[in-house]
Structures are given as C-alpha cells and as structure tokens.
Amino acid sequence: MENQLTNKSDISYPPTVDKRSQIRGLIAASTGTIVEYYDFTIYAYLAVVVAPLFFPGDDPTASLLASLAVFASAYLMRPIGGIFFGKVGDRSGRKRVLLLSVLLMGASSLVMALLPTYDTAGILAPIILVAARLAQGFSAGGELGGAMTYAYEIAGPRRKGLAMSVVFLGTFGGFALAAICVGTVSTVLSPSEMTSWGWRIPFLLGIPLLILSLWSRARIDDTPAYVEEVRDGTVKKSPLMELLRTQYASVLRSIGFAIPSSACMYIVLTYMGIHLVRENNLGTTEVAWISAGVISLITILMPVYGLIVDRFGAFQCNAFGVAACILLIFPVLHFTATGNRPVAVGSFLAFGLAMALVTVSAATVMPTLFGPSTRVTGLALGNNLSTVLTGGTAAYVSTWLIRETGNPISPGLFVAAACTLGIIALFSMKRPKDAHSIVR
After folding, report:
1. Which strand (E) or helix (H) includes residue 369?
2. Using CA atoms, how far apart are residues 199 and 178, in angstroms rounded to an integer?
3. How far apart are CA 24 and CA 210, in angstroms?
C-alpha cells in the first residue's frame, strides 16, 4: 500500500509559508477556480436556451440531449489536459499551471461568446461549439489539480481542510456567479432577446474575471515543496510514468475518493436545475435564481466545512457525508419533482450541504496519496477520470434514466452507485496512528 500517509513529512512541508503569502496564494488559487468554473458552467445553465440554436429539431428532448452531450464532451478532454498540465506542474512549477490553465479557459469562452448559430453557419456552428468545449475541458483538466496542490502545499499542517475548502469556495463561487449571471440576464431580457443575442452576455462577462485572476496568480511564488524538489534534483522527468509504475494503487484510490464528490457535485450544479424545470415545471429564470441561492449558500459555508474537517478528521467526515448523500438522494429527487416550491428548494439545499462535506473531506485526503514530485499529475488524474465517469455524464445520464424509466427519482441510482464506490475506496485505505488530523 504505497504512499498512504506513511510519514508526517508527506503531510506538512518545511519550510513553512508565512501567513501573508498563504493568504495571497489561497486567494490566487480560488480566484482562478472561480474563472475556470464560471466559464466552464455557463454553458450548462444555458443548455436549454442554446440547444435549439445549435441543434434544431422537432423533438425538444433530443435537442437538449444533444446539447448536454456537447457539455459532456468537454470532460473527455479533461484527463488529457490533466496529463499535460500535471507534467507542467510537477516539472516546471505549480504557478505555471495556474497561469496557463486559466488563460486557455478564458480564450475558449471568448470564442463561444462569438459563435455563429446553426441558422448562420450551418453544421460549422456545432462543430466550432464542440471544439471550444473541448478546449475548455483541456484547460479544466489542469486547473483543479494545480489549485489543490498549490493550496495544500502552502497551508499549515493543521489547516489542510480549510485550504481545500478555499479552493472549492472558488469552484462553487464560479458556479454561483454563473447562475446569478444567467438569472440576471434572463430576467432583464425577454425570451426572444435571450435566444437572439442575450445568451452571449454571460460568456463575455467572464473576461474581467480572467484579467483579475491572471493578475492575482502572477504575483504569487511557487510552493516550498516544489522549490525543494528543484533544489534536491528530485523532479521527475515523467511524472505520469512514475505514477503508473510505483503509485498505481494511489491513483485508483484517488479516483474512488473523487467519484462520489464528482457525481453529487454535478447533480447539484448541473442536473438539479434541469430537474426543477422539467419535472416541477418551474421557469428557467426562477430555477436559475434558486440554483444561485443554493450554490451561493454552499459557497459561503465552504470554510466552515474546512474547519469541521480539520477538527473531526477527513475520513470520518467523508464517511458521514457519503452516507448522508445516499440516504438523501431519493427523497430529494421526489420532493424536487413536486409542485411545492419551499419543500423543493429545501430538499435541493439539504443535498447540496451533504455534497459539500463529501467534496471538502475527499479533497483533503487526496493530496496525501502522492509525493510532491507527482502530486499535480496524481490529483489531475484522480479528479479528471472521476469527473469523466460521473461528473460530465451526470446531467445526461439522469435525463436519460428518467426518459427510459419514466420515474423522476431514477437518477438516485446513479448517485447511490457512485457513493458506493467511494465507500469502497475509503475503507481500502490504511490509516496510520501517527498521521495528521485528517485521519482522526
């Protein structure tokens, strides 16, 4: 069982980073993830609007499925992007990954904002759309692994959970901003204006965020862990081959840890809004605001989850959170398909809060599976392969399950299966008595 928290030095790195640099580094990591996930998610919130513009047809469900398939296609590029950016991060530094990934995401989103529709460009329109989404997926493949590695390596030994929660504050903040932006634009504009040109505005509004993120990330230093690797000459020429040769079990465990987090996260962030529109007959604008409110509350509470994980231990918190998601998903899907708005919103929020605990606790454990010479690549593989399996497919599979079964709670089977894999990964890990508080 290689590389499983076998040494305290694998958990906290000397020399320590001063508080000012820690704060500046965590802000840089989180602002970049805001940009990445704002740009990456805008498409999901606009899927219902975009579908007929790029995939016209007589069957609205078929058009929506085609649009969701494009959304999912970006996830196929994430492992490739993860390998590329993982090598950059492990060989050339964490800072370089943070800069390159956010720059590529911003450029891809600008292309999407200026896309011609099917009526204007014919088949070329969906082809360009797919290409832009693939570029976004490639970029996202490097972002989270780089940001998690950077935050983990600059955080104090007893604040790893808090550091990871700040990274995911940026992730959920990006989703929340996307929902708020779409809700605002669709409220101000008429449906015809939204379909004609209004859908482009949210993509364009990501440009100022991109500039802010680049400025923030350009001001940070690389992590002490990477600096020591360079100084000691232990930087690996091929981090991926090193992982596959000596740490393959750790890669599998990281995927297992990330699968419940990914499945539950994307049910909340991408599918639940579709569920409320299609099963509860709520308006697109109303659902955008509901999603914005729920995700904003989760975002605000992220540091609280980080403190909880640091206090009670990531393993215990992860087990509790995964069990809660399994118990909640079927009643949540039932209540969000009823006509009672307060109950539907409350159910949505309850599942989102359980999901957040799973996310922060899993993210706190995963960096400990890898040494500094392979950490960016290892985290990128774990996060991206799990996202391909259960994240990018969450909305598509959920919509397909309901169409095939006619049962609005059938997506719960998808979530339950993902969480079961997470439990298997959790209990496959050895937890040494002398390790950091994540294994209390």
Report:
1. none
2. 12
3. 17
Of 387, 72, 396, nearest to 260 by C-alpha is 387
CA distance 362 to 82: 18
The two structure tokens encoding residue 277? 């529109």
Distance from C-alpha of 179 to C-alpha of 46, rounded to nearest angstrom: 9
d(CA 188, CA 193): 10
Burial class (CB in 10 A: 0-12, 13-18, 19+), 2: exposed
Question: HEC string of 105-118?
Answer: HHHHHHHHHCCCCH
Domains and CATH numbers, the chain: 8-439 (1.20.1250.20)
Q: What does the pLDDT read at residue 16?
A: 66
Higher per-residue confidence, 54 vs 320: 320
Which residues 6+ apart lie within 8 Å of 325 measured at CB?
260, 264, 351, 354, 355, 358, 415, 419
Exposed/middle/buried for 9, CB within 10 Å: 0-12, 13-18, 19+?
exposed
If we measure between CA atoms, which residue out of 159, 155, 158 comes closest to residue 147?
A: 155
Q: 3-state DSSP call for residue 156? A: coil
54: nearest Cα among 42, 39, 44, 64: 64
**DSSP three-state, residue 255:** helix
Q: Round to whole Å and give the CA distance between 253 and 423.
A: 11
Identify the pLDDT of residue 59: 63
Query: Is residue 72 within 8 Å of residue 137, measured between CB atoms?
Result: no
Distance (Å, whole) CA 376 – CA 314: 20
CA distance linking residue 44 with residue 261, whole number of Å: 18
User: Does the pLDDT value for residue 93 go beyond 70?
Assistant: yes
3-class SS letters over 282-319? CCHHHHHHHHHHHHHHHHHHHHHHHHHHHHHCHHHHHH
